[in-house]
Amino acid sequence: MIISKQNRRVIYENLFKEGVMVAKKDFNAPKHEELDVPNLEVIKALQSLTSKGYVKTQFSWQWYYYVLTAEGVEYLREWYISTRHLIWAVSFMIRRSTGFTSLVRLSLRLTASPFVPVPLKSGLVAKVHIAHQEVIARSTAAGTMEERRTVPLASSDLNLQAWVVELLESRFWRMGPGLIIRDDPGSVGFIAAHIRSSSHRINEFKPTPEKPFVLGLPTGSSPIPTYKHLIKLVKDGKLSFQNVVTFNMDEYVGLSRGHPESYHTFMFRELFSHIDIPSSQVNILDGNVKDLIGECKKYEAKIKAYGGIELFLGGIGEDGHIAFNEPGSSLTSRTRIKTLAYDTILANARFFNNDIDAVPRMALTVGVGTVLDSREVVVVVTGQRKSLALSKAIEGGVNHLWTLSALQMHPWALIVVDEDATAELRVKTVKYFKSIERVQEEVEEAHAKLRTQGLEDGDGQVGSME
């Protein structure tokens, strides 16, 4: 069947924005109920997409239900370049979710979205299934699409609404690692300190002596602006490290803890001496012990004893290494001894009065697998010298020669960069991530309205399951 380019575009744009479509099993209907397109053309276009794996089709009584797959999202980008509408559609649909059909359509769309991590999808699928059965049961009593939208929400729909709110609260918008771009290193440090590693994440966790917040920390020049903001928050009384336990990423082998260039000295000079963290809650690898392998095993065991790391704040080297996981490191590696690459030795010589011979050749480091086990990872990247590594990690595939790229496998990874670090990224990539951040603000505004509406209704919380 020949479908005009204009009609096909209307169909594809609607599918791309909504993520799901419904069509009546009526080949003779002159128009689709929602689109100004013959119903038969909608069915045929979506059957074609189904045959290619871009759409999944479900049959129910007199209706076809179509759900866009992750592969379909990639395909339809050729037709609808403004990818940000994937997120914009959620805020738009929440505003109009007054009936059960539109709410279920929103939830089906979230289930199909590649932006939603798999662990969250499993619970969502179950709730969608329950509410979807009610859609089928009640569709016989409500004839038109508009009538079905305005039927009052049922109990299962309220459960579904609560789950949607939970998804929004959990900051699920990801496609591989998220990317936030700021003008300069100072602004990057502010974002990393305020949004993730400080007042928001730690205070939200509400740590106690029995359940401390476990924080992974880096060294080097990149995190220094972040540490300065953390210190200011502590001095302003907006943050406390009294119930925070820290684990540093790495330490040189052969340097005493009191050496001016040891990472133990660096951390106390740049952060720990200025905040209210008890020294007993600071954990840094000791590269001067006799049993280095035993030191690494004890470090991993201690992390596990605390229940794992809640948030790992990191930086990278010019070759894309995270911690001291040099190019070629196993992506499943744990805390271990690592021989440093010559490029890393050259880069770190500036901390040793530019004396290459004074730079240690080995280090103890947490592994890539250790970092990926963290519940959330935030990496700070600044400067044009690291722009190639950033482009490989964001635009390339997962590659053990660029260990930062392993964050593509982490559901809660965020990379915060300055403009200089984006020098090797495609212009389209930079625009895409900036648009995602702008539209995310719309989603959060819609979420705030949803919460306000729930409070005004007198139930005390949004999407209550009580």
TrEMBL record:
Subcellular localization: Cytoplasm
Gene Ontology molecular function, alphabetical: glucosamine-6-phosphate deaminase activity; identical protein binding
Domain of life from the UniProt record: Eukaryota
InterPro entries: Glc/Gal-6P_isomerase, Glucosamine6P_isomerase, Glucosamine6P_isomerase_CS, NagB/RpiA_transferase-like, Plectin_eS10_N, WH-like_DNA-bd_sf
Uppermost EC category: hydrolase
EC id: 3.5.99.6
Domain Plectin/eS10 N-terminal: 3-80
Record-linked HAMAP family: GlcN6P_deamin
Family: Belongs to the eukaryotic ribosomal protein eS10 family.
Entry-linked NCBIfam families: nagB
Name of the protein in its database record: glucosamine-6-phosphate deaminase
Source organism of the structure: Bondarzewia mesenterica
